[in-house]
Design a protein that fits this description.
CATH topology of the largest domain in chain A: Butyryl-CoA Dehydrogenase, subunit A, domain 3
Number of strands of chain A: 8
Distance between the termini of chain A: 14 Å
CATH architecture of the largest domain in chain B: Up-down Bundle
Structural class of chain B: alpha+beta
Helix content of chain B: 40-55%
Strand order of the largest sheet of chain B: 1-4-5-8
CATH architecture of the largest domain in chain A: Up-down Bundle
Largest sheet of chain A: 4 strands, mixed
Largest sheet of chain B: 4 strands, mixed
Shape of chain A: globular
CATH topology of the largest domain in chain B: Butyryl-CoA Dehydrogenase, subunit A, domain 3
CATH class of the largest domain in chain A: Mainly Alpha
Radius of gyration of chain B: 20 Å
Helix content of chain A: 40-55%
Order of helices and strands of chain B: HHHHHEEEEEEEEHEEHHHHHH
CATH class of the largest domain in chain B: Mainly Alpha
Number of helices of chain B: 12
Oligomer: heterodimer
Number of domains of chain A: 3
Strand order of the largest sheet of chain A: 1-4-5-8
Strand content of chain B: 5-15%
CATH superfamily of the largest domain in chain B: Butyryl-CoA Dehydrogenase, subunit A, domain 3
């Protein structure tokens, strides 16, 4: 690790050129889209919208052309996703395919797996969820117990996943499961692409504290998989998962989750803020500008083939603190209490994001796990 | 250019700017020998165009140099000299030899070619022969003032014993006076000062982070290095995140500033750096325990600078307030596009 990893990186002009087109598309596609739904950000599920984006070439765009992508640079993808998130577009349906599953299948998958999944991902039609946590394995992911055993040329999976976002409306799950016993727990794990329509799979949505259903428990009971459900190398699941972490932890979704509330707050404050309102809106802006530059810097490192896990962890932890502070500030700066029903846009969005905020420092690696990773990167043991 | 500058200056500072010298400068004042070495290095003129005898370096080239000044606690106005000479160059004037400083505070007026009023909080004011300032009014004018011509001076120093002096001038003939060119805001010295301090803070935090990691790995309590305790690890992790944020802010501010300084990037950098300075100093002292609170330990050489630099050339409140007013005036729909475009024109810049 090094602080000097954070070099200033401009978005190249050819990627920047996409921005106007994306904004134009969104201005039309979301013209009647209410503020409260924009607050859903990358948890908002709309298959029709995902297909429309796919038709524009904005899903799986970093994938090769032969699989339906555009061979776009990471910066081009960055421009598209940050505009989608800033506008509060409902990107959840294809989000995990675009961010994780597509790249994983490209990097570790066989030709048959790529042909089966990547074109449909790029059309915005095939949705994935990520099966990691289990009832007794949260932050301690290497302790997972869901197991796949070989039977002839098949795999048979038994176990349970939990907190699996979108499992109830995805076609596939890429699951990390145990395939062998090793003295080192991280060995003996493998990844499988599991068709969620197979017999033996039960998916039960778990209501979150707002009453919404985003995440699920997934039960796997003698689920029979073909041999080519294994993705990558048997026993290499852990390193395959961790290789992707810098992508998962450094994107604009790690600091834009509450931007809808900045927008409604500014509407509520109006054009002539008082001193406190001006100070806090400006402070949010300064931090957002800096987080975005940090995130772009990590993107440049990823584009250069480096593995900036340490820097990505910094972005995610600082980003979560930022996203969580927005509701705290918003309720201080204007005399508008949050409302679950009735009330104006700001009151509704404030209520929603105040309640969602605790998840920002849980999903994708808790604050405590990230700070542990950062400390180890600094040479503390 | 950036890499050569960084490595040259780092070598120079490693050789010449020991903690003993930084400490000595706090009590015995100006180190002429050290300044002579800086002058010989030519970095005071780095941002001056080549045709005027400088190196023609851009701010993007110089971000690392200013960070290193902060990291080593250089007890000299090298960053101030860089900025003052840069502004002279922007105004088409010859660079000045010797240490230079500038006044971003106070209130000066120009009447019949003579300057009157107060130049406030001038870094190293007592140690420089001349200072650069901008007079108030309809036509902001860059003036070069001989410090010895001041009618009165108030000696003041910051928490790191760095001189921050104020001078009162009464109808003094400036050494030169030139109207600010179009596009250069009246508060350019405040903006430039904020840019310098944001990089110095980032540099100081980086040095402090390394010092804190080393200490945490060496200090043993309960039979093991304190750096193995999660409570300590997490404090240092937060320190490193804010160090990274301040470094990124400063890098962006320098990279986006050329003939005009980027108001949005500089304000963002100073806000993040000022916040990081307080959080970082607090974490470093917590980890160092009582030894870090002694005069004997070097930690205070950094933390006492952070506690002043964050307030100089506009506090967090000054710059975030300016950002917030401009953004609210634009309305919610322009918030994101403005931040992405990186352009922000404000009332303060137009008419201060």
């Amino acid at each position: 690790m090094s602080i000097d990893q954070f070099k200033y990186s401009r978005i190249p002009p050819e990627a920047e050129a996409l921005r106007g087109e994306v904004r134009e598309f969104l201005a039309d596609a979301l013209k009647d889209y209410p503020a409260i739904r924009r607050a859903d950000s990358w948890m908002g599920f709309d298959a029709e919208f995902s297909r429309r984006l796919g038709a524009r070439g904005w899903v799986g765009m970093a994938l090769p052309k032969r699989y339906g992508g555009s061979d776009a640079s990471p910066f081009a993808r960055y421009v598209v996703i940050e505009e989608l998130l800033a506008a509060g577009a409902p990107v959840s349906a294809h989000w995990f395919s675009d961010r994780q599953s597509g790249p994983q299948i490209l990097h570790f998958g066989t030709d048959a797996q790529r042909d089966r999944h990547l074109p449909a991902i790029c059309r915005g039609e095939q949705y994935f969820c990520i099966g990691m946590s289990e009832p007794n394995s949260g932050s301690d992911l290497a302790s997972i117990k869901t197991r796949a055993r070989r039977e002839g040329d098949k795999w048979v999976v038994n176990g349970q996943k939990v907190w699996t976002t979108n499992a109830h409306r995805s076609h596939y799950m890429i699951a990390l499961v145990r395939t062998g016993e090793n003295s080192k727990r991280q060995e003996g794990l493998s990844q499988f692409i599991i068709d969620l329509s197979l017999p033996g799979i039960t998916i039960r949505p778990i209501k979150d504290l707002t009453g919404s259903e985003h995440f699920n428990e997934v039960f796997l009971d003698e689920v029979v998989l073909d041999a080519d459900a294994l993705i990558g190398t048997e026993g290499q699941g852990w390193s395959q998962v961790t290789a992707e972490l810098a992508f998962e932890r450094s994107g604009p979704e790690r600091f834009l989750s509450s931007i809808a509330l900045i927008h409604t707050l500014m509407d509520a404050v109006g054009r002539s803020p008082d001193a406190l309102q001006a100070k806090e809106v400006g402070r949010l802006a300064a931090r957002l500008v800096t987080l975005r530059n940090m995130s772009l810097s990590v993107t440049a490192q990823l584009a250069a083939g480096e593995n900036p896990t340490w820097a990505a962890s910094c972005v995610k932890d600082l980003g979560a603190v930022f996203e969580q502070e927005i509701p705290e500030l918003a309720q201080l700066l204007v005399e508008i209490p949050p409302t679950a029903e009735g009330g104006g846009d700001h009151a509704r969005v404030l209520a929603y994001l105040t309640q969602m905020a605790p998840s920002f420092s849980l999903r994708g690696g808790t604050r405590e796990i990230l700070r542990g990773i950062i400390a180890r990167g600094l040479g503390l043991r | 250019m950036r890499e050569i500058f960084d490595s040259t200056v780092e070598r120079l500072f490693v050789d010449l700017v020991s903690t003993e010298k930084v400490l000595a400068a706090e009590t015995s004042g100006w180190n002429a020998e050290l300044w002579a070495a800086m002058e010989a290095s030519g970095f005071g003129l780095a941002a001056v165009p080549e045709e005027q005898g400088g190196a023609g370096a851009t701010w993007a080239d110089l971000g690392g140099v200013v960070r290193l000044c902060g990291r080593f606690g250089l007890p000299l106005p090298l960053p101030e000299t860089l900025l003052a000479n840069w502004l002279l160059g922007v105004c088409g004037q010859e660079a000045q030899a010797g240490p230079l400083s500038f006044a971003a505070g106070g209130h000066l007026t120009l009447a019949d070619g003579k300057v009157s009023g107060v130049a406030a909080d001038v870094p190293w004011g007592r140690d420089v022969p001349v200072l650069v300032a901008i007079t108030a009014g309809e036509a902001p004018t860059l003036v070069l003032l001989p410090v010895e011509a001041a009618a009165a001076r108030t000696a003041c120093s910051n928490t790191a014993a760095e001189p921050r002096d104020s001078f009162r001038f009464e109808t003094v003939q400036p050494l030169l006076s030139v109207p600010l060119p179009a596009g250069i805001p009246a508060d350019v010295l405040l903006l430039g000062g904020a840019m310098l301090r944001s990089a110095q803070i980032a540099g100081a935090l980086q040095g402090m982070l390394e010092m804190t990691i080393t200490y945490a790995n060496e200090r043993v309590q309960f039979g093991k290095p304190i750096g193995s305790f999660q409570a300590i690890q997490h404090q240092i992790a937060v320190l490193s995140e804010h160090t990274a944020a301040s470094a990124m802010g400063a890098e962006a501010a320098f990279a986006q500033s050329a003939v005009s300084l980027s108001r949005l990037a500089v304000a963002s950098a100073k806000v993040c750096a000022s916040e990081a300075a307080g959080i970082g100093a607090s974490a470093a002292h917590a980890v160092h325990g009582a030894i870090g609170f002694t005069h004997e330990h070097a930690l205070h050489l950094t933390t006492r600078r952070l506690w002043s630099w964050r307030s100089e050339f506009g506090t967090l409140t000054h710059w975030s307030g300016e950002l917030g007013r401009a953004l609210c005036q634009g309305g919610a729909a322009l918030f994101w596009p403005t931040l992405v475009a990186g352009n922000l024109e404000t009332q303060a810049g137009a008419s201060a």
